[in-house]
Amino acid sequence: MDLLEYQGKEFFRRHGVPTPPPGIVCTTADEAEDAARELNRPVVVKAQVKTGGRGKAGGIKLAEAPEEAREAAAAILGLDIRGHMVQLVYVEPASDIADEYYLSVMHDRVGKGYLVICSAEGGVDIEQVNRERPEAVVKEAIVPSQVEGGLPAGRASAIVHAAQIPDAAADAAGELLVQLFDAFRLGDALLTEINPLVRTTDGRVIALDAKVTIDGNAMFRHDDHREWADFDRRGDDLEARAKRKGIQYVKLDGDVGVLGNGAGLVMATIDVVAQAGGQPANFLDVGGGASADTMAESLAIVLADPQVKSVLINIYGGITRGEEVAKGVIEALDRLGGIEPKLVVRLDGTNAAQGRRILEQARHPNVVAAADMQQAARRAVELARG
Amino acid sequence: MSIIIDQATTVVVQGIGTQGTFHAKRNLDYGTNVVGGVHPKRGGGRWEVLDLPVFATVAEARAETGADTSMIMVPAPFAMEAILEAYEAGISTIVVITEGVPVHDMTVVYDRVVRRGGVRLIGPNCPGLISPGEANVGIIPANIAGPGTVGLVSRSGTLTYQIMHELAQGGLGISTCVGIGGDPVVGSNFLDIIRLFADDPDTHAIVFVGEIGGTDEQEAGRWVAEHIPDTPVVAYVAGFEAPAGKQMGHAGAIVREGGGGGETAAEKKDILESLGIAVATNPSEATSLMIERLSGGG
């Protein structure tokens, strides 16, 4: 789960990583003005969206006075930044910046360990620095057995020096790296990135930005992450609604709704729909052992997308049972009333025969049976074309 | 014949709740030599549904039964502990069906178990493995495929069933099918399993089923091209239509925004094809490509 910047900074503060003084989250220009007045000093108004490139898109503005904060917030709220609509701004006390660096700790999938990345060139696209001048970016792989008590101070210091962080900041940056590593590991993060890490004119080293991804699977040992998870699931868009129900849903741009059991099978189904000349409207994985109720809710989510003209349900039952799927489809149709799109259903695996029989007996005008995945995709594409 | 599991395999089950019991029973009914369950508070008791003993620890189970394989079905918060316990007890094949294991836990497990060697860890978050006619350890529905000479390895559960189903319809049987799981850190990757298939005299062809995210498919492909260029190998990669930056269900199935790192399905396909490996774009095509390769074409 990706955190917004203000949440990431709170995550940092909890683990002792130095940040600017706490700011205030606002949803309107009025609130931003009040916030600036309360903070009683120059502020930065920052768009809170889960994507990079905010600065370039006009999503970050400095404000000397409360009225300026109002104007800045008015300009930023509602902006579309790389497909993310700005609904929140963070009004934070401005920092006097002397120097900018880059620092991150992330899980390293290839090395099956951790990776610390540090560069004295911060505040810019680090990928680009890495492409153009790889020698300016230090990448240090670390395995768990080396850091069971945390990242040793000597190692942190060596990394910071190798990255040529200037002497004036090196000690503080080394200390901050030790804290960041604790935050990453003890906080079950998959990524903690600070860009820029800054030295202020009064000589402190602080995280001016925070990009944090925490592992949703580790939620059971982090009551302190609960509020962010709740935040992530709020809202009325379809992805949030699916998350609340524990259903995996990703919106795509087409008109053929796709629903199946198991992530790999759903991905494959989407590919087959595209190969049949159609455009998938979404990815929806009902998960393992889906009940009739989960099926019904999943269908409701797919059908709530107004672009959807037909739906392909592709189930290969292992744990999931065919009769539950069939009951869920019928239940969903009953619950949703007179729906337009036709549903093409392909059922195989555990109790598929019972499931097919239930669908056949129901003789629902909107349900079309298909013998296999390819045929189901072709049929769903034809139906979407009308 | 098979890799990793066969008729001689003896299995203990860690996690004997509803799901653990249901699937252990299915495995037992298939003919797998399941010898008991492990539960810290129910040691010394009976596992009623299977009519088998329950042990308090894996070490005890191993001492009593000589079990060499553990199937782990405990809830995610206890998975790391369960894997380490199996490892300490000297179990040589650990199959972790549990989903939702934190990445940090698996990173530690990888360090303490896999990196040290000597143990075969499959999963987590996987359907397990089946050697048709020999043994089934995990949750793969056994009725789909019959015995044969195609080795199948896959990152995904139900997609594996789909491919087995298609292979069976094409008249192709399976030597062993291994679901390695779709998490970012798994105990065994494609290459680990493909190497075992390469050494198995009864596996004559290999299908590996990948998806977006990571670059394990390429690593496997390079090894195949270098070491077993004459073995019929077909790959399938799911997720051609997946957008960057969106996790497609599996924790490992995500393409970094910006891309260019070989993590998309199209990139994987191009690289594998440049290595001389036939790449299917859907499950049916995987079967037709395999039939073609087995008959000397392609």
Main beta sheet of chain A, described? 6 strands, antiparallel
**Secondary-structure element order of chain B, N to C:** EHEEEHEHEHEEEEHEHEHEHEH
- Percent helix of chain A, as a range, is 25-40%
Model regions low in confidence, pLDDT < 50 over at least 5 residues of chain B: none
* Helix content percent band of chain B: 25-40%
Number of helices of chain A: 13
Largest interface: A-B, 49 and 60 residues
Approximately how much beta-strand content do the residues of chain B carry?
15-25%
H/I helix tally of chain B? 9
Q: How many strands in all of chain B?
A: 14
- CA-based shape of chain A: elongated
Q: What strand line-up does the widest sheet of chain B have?
A: 3-4-2-1-5-6-7
Radius of gyration of chain B: 19 Å
Q: What is the overall shape of chain B?
A: globular
Backbone structural class of chain B: alpha/beta
Tell me the layout of helices and strands.
The complex is a heterodimer of chains A (386) and B (298).
Chain A: H1 5-14, E1 24-26, H2 29-39, E2 43-47, E3 60-63, H3 66-76, E4 80-81, E5 84-85, E6 89-93, E7 97-108, E8 113-119, H4 126-132, E9 137-142, H5 153-162, H6 167-186, E10 189-200, E11 205-207, E12 211-214, H7 226-233, H8 238-244, E13 248-251, E14 256-260, H9 263-275, E15 282-285, H10 292-303, E16 310-317, H11 322-336, E17 342-349, H12 352-362, E18 367-370, H13 373-385
Parallel strand pairs in A: 14-15, 14-16, 16-17, 17-18
Antiparallel strand pairs in A: 1-6, 2-3, 2-6, 4-5, 7-8, 7-10, 8-9, 10-11, 10-12, 13-15
Chain B: E1 10-14, H1 18-30, E2 33-38, E3 46-47, E4 52-55, H2 58-65, E5 69-72, H3 79-88, E6 93-96, H4 103-114, E7 120-122, E8 128-131, E9 135-138, E10 147-154, H5 157-169, E11 174-179, H6 190-199, E12 205-211, H7 216-227, E13 233-238, H8 265-274, E14 278-280, H9 283-294
Parallel strand pairs in B: 1-2, 1-5, 2-4, 5-6, 6-7, 10-11, 10-12, 12-13, 13-14
Antiparallel strand pairs in B: 3-4, 8-9, 8-11
Helix pairs in contact in B: 3-4, 5-9, 6-7
